[in-house]
Amino acid sequence: MYFIIKMNKKILRINDLHSERAKRAQNKKSEITSLYSKRAQNKRAQEEMVGFALIMVVVAVILLIFLSFILSNHKVKEIQSYEVDSFISSVLQYTSNCSDYSGKLPIRDLISKCKNNQRCLDEKESCDVLNKTISEILSKSWKSPLVKAYELNITKENQETLIFLKKGNKTNTFKGSTPQVINQVEIEFRVYY
Predict the structure, then answer these.
(1) Is residue 58 very low, low, confident or very high in pLDDT (cuts 50, 70, 90)?
(2) H/E element holding 127?
(3) To the nearest whole percent, how much of the chain has pLDDT over 90?
């Protein structure tokens, strides 16, 4: 009987050893499986991030193409200096509502009347008529979306300002007329864009 008990103990120890080995093997197997699953999850996460980045790049390219298409359709012709000079020449030829004995005066003659503080035949101040007429011409002529501001300065020879008209916000980019002098009065005009 003693022999049977010893054998049973040995068998139990062998079974315990087998179960411990089986548990260790099972633990190693689960560790290896969890490592592989973590790697697989990391790989899937990386693939998703790469996919998201590709989508963002495609959207950015589409937006750039769309933006360039929109901007290319709305190109505005740049204002040239000769256009500003021509404008001043035309304004000087424009007939105002101020009259003298010879008839309605062009702006060129109205500037001289304003310089000498003379009135029109209908007793209106020549400077008021000049200011109103030029303001109307400027507001109707420079409506381009490219024009941010304009400035007209008419001064006497002693630098006394007869008329100064300004509209909009000045920028660093402008085209200006060549200063014109008429009867010792200087006319300077700038268009800011």
Answers:
(1) very high
(2) helix 126-141
(3) 19
Bridge partners, 175 (sequence order): 191
Evaluate whether the domain defined by 81-192 bears CATH number 1.10.10: no
76, 145 contact by CB (below 8 A): yes
**What is the 8-class DSSP label of residue 146?**
T
61 phi/psi in degrees, rounded to 5: -65, -45
The conformation of residue 177, written as its DSSP 8-state character, comes to P
- What SS3 class is residue 156? strand
Pairwise CA distance, residues 9 & 15, whole Å? 10
| Residue among 173, 141, 144, 140 nearest 76 (CA) | 144
Looking from the CA of 66 toward its CB, the CA atoms found within 13 Å total 6
What's the confidence (pLDDT) of residue 132? 93
Closest CA to 165 of 193, 192, 135: 135
**Three-state secondary structure along 73-99?**
HCCCCCCCHHHHHHHHHHHHHCEEEEE
The model's pTM: 0.56
Domain boundaries, the chain: 1-75, 81-192
Give the residue with greater pLDDT, 35 vs 64. 64
